């Protein structure tokens, strides 16, 4: 997964940039590059593969400069080649970019009409040319960048340098992380503070929409052209890769990391709006033969599996069962040949899931049945990865908070990628449908980002939960597992008793619980069942219940007495469960903080459940 490092100093920063890239290697990447400005020239080296390859090239060419940008790339648009590696140059301008420019094709067409020649297949190159073009009407680099940013759709962090501005580094944050490292007579940027720890422990955490001009002596941050102040935070020298950074808790940090985490997870499988040829290539023969799917998981991962069941059956007509591992392993399940057994686990070490996997393999062997096993998890070196035929990693980065957040939403993204792959191989999903869903997947990080804008509103509503003893979550279709997940989150970190129900089950029991005191949380995306869900809301209100509704902005559901509505950006009903995970996570988080619990390490719970 890609990373940015950049700096402006008195001394040469070549080695600082290379060291910074090495410290970002844990994120995963396919190529790396660096550009330095020296005597009105851009000196650039790029290499496919490891940062060590780049380092060797830089040592050989001995490029030096006191202003520069560097990058590790995980290709999203265009193959991992040297030409596609960043930085990208337009004559006098060099750019590094994390993220995706969704409208790059139309920008590219316009720029080509103006005579710009593209040397890469990336979406990023348009940014370099756009800035170059804007500089024809102003000599001010910051102004040129500010002028072109509104044209860019998508999620991005940018680092920009220019040959005629040897003491100026411009940075932009919109949907991909970026932090400023504050030095003495020198300043830096990076997508992760970890990269800059050798040069500083003082950081400014940028916010969405920030545009920054760094010089050796100054840091100016602009929002809507207005200069603003952001605090400088000092980090403990012992800070590690898994630091909380600017956040009060790991859980909150991890909630906010979801746009990036999902982008990384889908980037490994997608090239533009198609699946990469090498994505799960070795599984193709096995996938061709499978007749059904059995998902085995625990806790939050089980909820991800429940959603995947809807997707498998609806999208590619493949029967899918989901079961809690601790039940599956002890109930003598019938193992059926030509079945794909999918284990889902954040750590890849969850004891019950691992035991269920081993048991399944033993039973299949005893009966000489041909089955395929697969792991979806966040740890490449885990036991499950080693012991299954195939695996698909969620590239969420370390998840420290016990309550799973980014591991869950990246599991959902990974499961959708798996379904696309199986649909492609078994020819049960048309190419156009694959393209439609991949386009939607690329859009998800931005929608999550917009959904996170509701944080303050959810904090305000959380106050109404803090004295409660019980809570009900309701949803239909793929929102039913989100209701279960919301209830699980709330109970595990706030210790409020919570239940998740399929809204259609309301009359079959839980309606008896509804009274003045019990909040009822409703998940209401724009889908075929919205009207039925609205009837369920009426049933709750008629019994004096108080509703907290996370609703599609076009659902027509409005605030009224004892009905509090948080608008969620419109998203296809297919991918809505990924997006609706965000408000339930934020709600649980804020309620727990207000109740003063140990959010990251709730009582009695552990992160990686390696015991039964
Ligand atoms: N879209 C750019 C940057 C890739 C990225 O952010 N990867 O995680 C590219 O494909 O070069």
TrEMBL record:
GO CC entries: cytosol
MF terms in GO: carbohydrate derivative binding; glutamine-fructose-6-phosphate transaminase (isomerizing) activity
Any single biological process term in GO: fructose 6-phosphate metabolic process
Active-site residues, record numbering mapped to chain: 2, 607
Reactions accelerated catalytically: D-fructose 6-phosphate + L-glutamine = D-glucosamine 6-phosphate + L-glutamate
EC numbers on record: 2.6.1.16
Entry's localization field: Cytoplasm
Entry annotated with the keyword Transferase: yes
Entry keywords, A to Z: Aminotransferase, Cytoplasm, Glutamine amidotransferase, Repeat, Transferase
EC class name: transferase
Domain Glutamine amidotransferase type-2: 2-217
InterPro entries xref list: GATase_2_dom, GFAT, GFAT_N, GlmS/AgaS_SIS, GlmS/FrlB_SIS, Ntn_hydrolases_N, SIS_dom, SIS_dom_sf
Main location: cytoplasm
Domain SIS, residue spans: 283-428, 461-602
Main function: Catalyzes the first step in hexosamine metabolism, converting fructose-6P into glucosamine-6P using glutamine as a nitrogen source.
Subunit structure: Homodimer.
Protein name, per record: Glutamine--fructose-6-phosphate aminotransferase [isomerizing]
Organism from which the protein derives: Acinetobacter silvestris
Organism classification: Bacteria, Pseudomonadati, Pseudomonadota, Gammaproteobacteria, Moraxellales
């Amino acid at each position: 997964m890609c990373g940015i490092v950049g700096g402006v100093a008195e001394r040469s920063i070549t080695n600082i940039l290379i060291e910074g890239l090495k410290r970002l290697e844990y994120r995963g990447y396919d190529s790396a590059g660096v550009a330095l400005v020296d005597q009105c020239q851009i000196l650039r080296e790029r290499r496919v593969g490891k940062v060590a390859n780049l380092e060797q090239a830089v040592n050989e060419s001995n490029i030096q400069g006191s202003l520069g940008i560097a990058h590790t790339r995980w290709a999203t648009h265009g193959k991992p080649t040297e030409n596609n590696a960043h930085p990208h140059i337009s004559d006098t301008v060099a750019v590094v970019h994390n993220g995706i420019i969704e409208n790059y094709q139309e920008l590219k067409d316009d720029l080509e009409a103006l005579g710009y020649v593209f040397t890469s297949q990336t979406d990023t190159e348009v940014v370099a040319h756009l800035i170059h073009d804007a500089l024809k009407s102003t000599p001010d680099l910051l102004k040129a960048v500010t002028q072109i940013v509104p044209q860019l759709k998508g999620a991005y962090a940018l680092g920009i340098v220019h040959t005629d501005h040897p003491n100026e580094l411009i940075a932009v944050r919109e949907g991909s992380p970026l932090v400023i490292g504050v030095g003495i007579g020198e300043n830096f940027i990076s997508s992760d503070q970890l990269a800059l720890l050798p040069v500083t422990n003082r950081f400014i955490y940028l916010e969405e929409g920030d545009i920054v001009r760094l010089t050796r002596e100054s840091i100016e941050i602009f929002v809507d052209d207005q200069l603003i102040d952001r605090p400088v935070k000092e980090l403990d020298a012992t800070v590690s890769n898994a630091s909380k950074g600017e956040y009060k808790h790991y859980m909150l940090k991890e909630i906010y990391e979801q746009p990036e985490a999902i982008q990384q997870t889908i980037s490994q499988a997608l090239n533009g709006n198609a699946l990469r040829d090498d994505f799960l290539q070795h599984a193709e023969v096995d996938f061709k033969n499978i007749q059904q799917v059995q998902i085995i998981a625990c806790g939050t991962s089980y909820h991800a599996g429940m959603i995947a069941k809807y997707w498998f059956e609806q999208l590619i007509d493949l029967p899918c069962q989901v079961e809690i591992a601790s039940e599956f392993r002890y109930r003598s399940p019938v193992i059926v040949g030509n079945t794909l057994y999918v284990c889902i686990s954040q750590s890849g070490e969850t004891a019950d899931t691992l035991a269920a996997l081993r048991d399944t393999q033993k039973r299949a062997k005893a009966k000489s049945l041909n089955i395929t096993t697969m792991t979806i998890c966040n740890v490449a070196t885990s036991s499950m990865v080693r012991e299954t035929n195939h695996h698909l990693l969620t590239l969420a980065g370390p998840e420290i908070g016990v309550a799973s957040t980014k591991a869950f939403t990246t599991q959902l993204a990974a499961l959708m990628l798996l379904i696309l792959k199986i649909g492609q191989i078994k020819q049960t999903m048309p190419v156009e449908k694959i393209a439609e869903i991949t386009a939607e997947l690329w859009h998800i990080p931005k929608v999550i980002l917009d959904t996170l804008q509701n944080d303050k509103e959810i904090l305000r509503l959380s106050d109404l939960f803090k004295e409660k003893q019980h809570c009900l979550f309701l949803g239909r279709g793929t929102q039913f597992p989100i209701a279960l997940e919301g209830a699980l989150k709330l109970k595990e970190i706030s210790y409020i008793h919570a239940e998740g129900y399929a809204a259609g089950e309301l009359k079959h029991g839980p309606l008896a619980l509804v009274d003045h005191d019990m909040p009822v949380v409703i998940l209401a995306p724009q889908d075929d069942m919205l009207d039925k869900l609205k009837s369920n809301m009426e049933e709750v209100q008629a019994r004096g219940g108080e509703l907290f509704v996370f609703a599609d902005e076009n659902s027509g559901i409005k605030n009224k007495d004892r009905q509090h509505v948080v608008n969620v950006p419109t998203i296809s009903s297919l991918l809505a469960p990924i997006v609706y995970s965000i408000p339930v996570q934020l709600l649980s988080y804020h309620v727990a903080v207000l109740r003063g619990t140990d959010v990251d390490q709730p009582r009695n719970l552990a992160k990686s459940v390696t015991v039964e």
